[in-house]
Amino acid sequence: MEGSTHNMQRRIIWKPCHFARIRCLVDQMACFTSERALTLGGETDDPVYADVPRPPKKMSERKPYPTPMKVLIRRAKEEKEARKVEPCRMLEESPDNGLLVPELVEVAHQVYQARKSLLFGLSKLVQVVPVQRCRFCSEVHIGHVGHEIRTCTGPNSGFRSATHVWRKGGVQHVVSFPKCFHLYDRVGKPRVGHDERFEIPRIPAILELCIQAGLEIDKYPTKRRTRPVYSIEGRIVDFESVNKMDDVNRNSYSGIVDLVVHSDIKTDAEELRNSDSQSDTNLVDETLPSDKVGKSLSELSIITMDSWFEMISGAKKIMEKYSVKTCGYCLEVQVGPKGHKVRMCKASKHQSRNGLHAWQEATIEDLVGPNYVWHVRDIDGLALDNNLKRYYGKAPAVVELCVQAGAPVPNEYRSMMRLDVASPERDEVDLVA
Q1: ∠ CA(104), CA(357), CA(209), 5° rounding?
Q2: Cβ contacts of 308 within 8 Å, gap of 6 or more
Q3: What sequence ranges are listed for the domain APO (predicted)?
Q4: DSSP 294
Q5: Is the pTM higher than 0.85?
Q6: Exposure on the CB side of residue 404, measured as CA atoms within 13 A
Q7: Rounded Cα distance, 191 and 203, in Å
Q8: Angle between helical axes of 205-212 and 102-125 (0-180°, round to 10)
Q9: How many angstroms separate the CA atoms of 405 and 114, rounded?
Q10: DSSP symbols for 180-195
Q11: How far apart are the first and last CA of the chain?
């Protein structure tokens, strides 16, 4: 008995090296926790970044509803009462009745052309202004040297004190276009079943939005009606006579599925390089004199930024009439009156939904990923210091890339980029309150 008590006393003896090791681990975890809270929009958020969209505080937290829930409930009750009063009625408002909105057809073509111009400009700008991406997370930086701000949340970031590991990036890291299923008939068959997930192609959601708004693309046929549809007790019924479009098999996309599923922004950029506008390809020509290169680069950056704003503003106008759905927990998007039924959600609480998405109203941030980055005032200067991060501003990666290439700073992003804040030097950190 005495021997066992003596052994227990020997086991609980702690050496000074053990305490030092534990203290080091605690400090490291505290540093990582604070940086993660700052990245995820926790309580330690600096109020000066209130104008920058933040991700959810917790990965299990649902996205905020653009329209308040009380308004959605009131609309659902009004629609239910309207169906009771008039079970069979002809839908009069476009595009709910299957017809196009005439004033948005031209906007859809403008958005499509603006997207092509944007991708072409970005494919040229990234060859001059370097783009850095983190190896372990989605962080992106515009500049020759990646920043030193410890905001990495990737695998084993705690062992690296939340520092990023930078690699060379491309156009797909500057702006992202989430993909969705292409709908042949957005009113007659608005949902894609789970068994149809390999038969129907997936295309960029903003391209699908333009197609539903009136853009015609031969590779992605869609049904156009000339008469409105009827609603019988909430179900859509089309009494329009069968036309030539009805002969097209909805699920026959021979040779399109593989092309679309495995395509990305790089493919679009390559197609744009071979386009008919050969004059634009000379904007960034290494054989030109230095003054000509700088002038052409500045013009290209201005055109690219104008295309960005034209695409965003046009997409917002279309989304006011054409509904776009997004998952409340992941990045999935579906253009149409309803979300699809493909069981592919792997976000929080997907087990309770059997892999189905929790659909809700989408915003422009869900349709086009702007990917906010830190603003660099001197692209050839030192890397951004972690101790001075409260003095740095942010901007969408497209805007930052165009500004670094010579475009003027847009007025709507001056406050977000903190151009009116004087940043102290590295050796002046302790002297600033």
Answers
A1: 15
A2: 114, 118, 396, 398, 399, 402
A3: 133-219, 326-411
A4: H
A5: no
A6: 28
A7: 16
A8: 150
A9: 19
A10: EEPPS-TTTS----GG
A11: 61
CB 224 within 8 A of CB 100: yes
Q: How confident is the model at residue 235 (pLDDT cuts 50, 70, 90)?
A: confident
Q: Taking Cα atoms as reference points, which of 173, 107, 128 lies closest to residue 301?
A: 128
pLDDT at 7 exceeding the cut of 90: no
Overall size of the chain counted in residues: 433
pLDDT bracket for residue 187 (50, 70, 90): confident
Distance CA 9, CA 209 (A): 72
Query: What whole-number percentage of the chain has pLDDT above 90?
Result: 38
Q: 87 preceded by cis ω (within 30°)?
A: no
Residues 240-268, mean pLDDT to the nearest whole number: 44
Whether 362 contacts 398, CB under 8 Å = no
DSSP three-state, residue 395: strand
Dihedral over alpha carbons 4, 8, 9, 11 (to 10 degrees): 140
DSSP 95: T
- Name 334's bridge partners: 325
* Domain map (residue ranges) of the chain: 88-237+293-431
| Residue 376 CB neighbours (<10 A) | 23
Q: 397-404 and 290-319 helices cross at what angle (nearest 10)?
A: 160
Q: For tokens 């052309």, name the residue.
A: 113
Q: Is 424 strand, coil or helix?
A: coil
- What is the arrangement of strands in the sheet containing 324-327, beginning at the earlier edge strand? 333-335, 324-327, 359-361
DSSP 8-state symbol, 284: T
Q: What are phi and psi of 310, to 5 degrees?
A: -65, -40
Q: Taking the mean position of all CA atoms in its chain, how far away is CA 29? A: 30
Amino acid at 250: R
Torsion of CA 22, 25, 27, 29, to 10 degrees: -140
Distance of CA 179 to the CA centre of its chain: 10
**CA atoms of 325 and 366, how far apart (whole Å):** 9
Q: How far apart are CA 355 and CA 345, in angstroms?
A: 5
Least confident among 53-67, 271-285, 357-371, 393-407: 271-285
DSSP strands (E only) in 173-245? 179-181, 202-204, 230-232, 235-237
Q: Which two tokens stand for residue 190?
A: 């608005």
